């Protein structure tokens, strides 16, 4: 139900209404938390598309086996630790979910590399 304060229209401040605190998915004011994670300073929405894209670039496709190359494993673990530091399991889960949609064959490999980081404990 709409807040009566906004019956005749919202008073938007970027992505959030100043009257009723409703949010919309546009006009976010993102601030970089890491080189690959941004957060909106108004509503708190996290954008981790760059983190997912970075992980996808580290993934290598084989004929039958999908894995991360040894040279990328350390960076993938570092990304997991950085995500845990700024957003905990919820941020890691969000990145993992988006990553596994883009490259499902590598999901298990990412899960194994992140196992033991923060609350991540073989989450799939």
Commentary on this structure:
The protein is α+β, with helices and mostly antiparallel strands. The protein has 2 domains: 11-47, no CATH class; 49-124. The chain is 41% helix and 15% strand. The chain is built from 3 helices and 7 strands; from the N terminus they run βββββαββαα. The strands form 3 sheets. It has a 3-stranded antiparallel sheet with strand order 3-4-5. Strands 1-2 form a two-stranded antiparallel sheet. A two-stranded antiparallel sheet has the order 6-7.
Helix/sheet category: alpha+beta
Shape: elongated
Give me the side-by-side strand order of the main sheet. 3-4-5
Give a quick account of the main beta sheet: strands, pairing sense, barrel closure.
3 strands, antiparallel
What radius of gyration results from the CA coordinates? 18 Å
User: Count of DSSP helices?
Assistant: 3
Distance between the termini: 37 Å
Any low-confidence stretches, pLDDT <50, length ≥5? none
The beta-strand count equals 7
Count structural domains.
2
Average pLDDT, all residues? 88
């Amino acid at each position: 139900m709409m807040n009566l304060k906004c019956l005749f229209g919202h008073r938007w401040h970027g992505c959030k209404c100043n009257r009723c605190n409703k949010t919309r998915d546009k006009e976010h004011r993102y601030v970089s938390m890491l080189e690959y994670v941004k957060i909106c300073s108004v509503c708190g929405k996290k954008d981790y598309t760059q983190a997912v894209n970075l992980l996808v670039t580290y993934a290598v496709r084989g004929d039958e086996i999908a894995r991360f190359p040894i040279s990328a494993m350390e960076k993938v673990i570092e990304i997991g630790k950085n995500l845990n530091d700024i957003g905990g399991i919820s941020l890691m889960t969000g990145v993992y979910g988006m990553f596994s949609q883009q490259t499902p064959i590598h999901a298990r490999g990412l899960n194994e590399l992140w196992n033991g980081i923060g609350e991540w404990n073989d989450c799939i």
